[in-house]
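Narrative of activities, Objective 1.

The group set out to show that a structural description can be obtained from nothing but a protein's sequence at a throughput compatible with the screening campaign. Below is one input-output pair from the validation batch, recorded exactly as produced.
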Amino acid sequence: MPTAKPLWTCPACGERFVSPRLWHSCGRGSYDALFRRSEPHVRRTFERLARLARACGPVRIYPQKTRVVFQARIRFGGGHPQKSRFVAAFLLPPGTASPRFSSVLANVSPHYMACYVPLSRESDVDAEIRRWMRRAYRFGCQEHLWKRHAHRPGRVRS
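Output recorded for this entry:
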């Protein structure tokens, strides 16, 4: 597997990205501010989701003004709280379908699409969500790029 390039660090806010000067808000958020208008179970639902993300491997989880981001090398998930639910976001392979998706952004990348899933209670963070988190985490690690490079003609496969 090729060695990943180091992440670029924004000198203004300290966030790390795969590309220099990648657009971002340079804003710092707080969990208290983000969940201020939400019912208590919404924060607990998010915490359960965050535990799933951490179980996948090294991950940065940080609040912004209106959302929480899950990031490995790239942002692969997260979501935003509403009054009585947390809307989780995952990068998933094209063609992934579920009646649980409230919306899908299909043109994000040829490799993945952004899928949004409303979670109304802690028990909504179930085995299906765990599978989606694992798949999204692999996109966050950019596994899809390493596999593509590993199969180029003339390259040694490991």
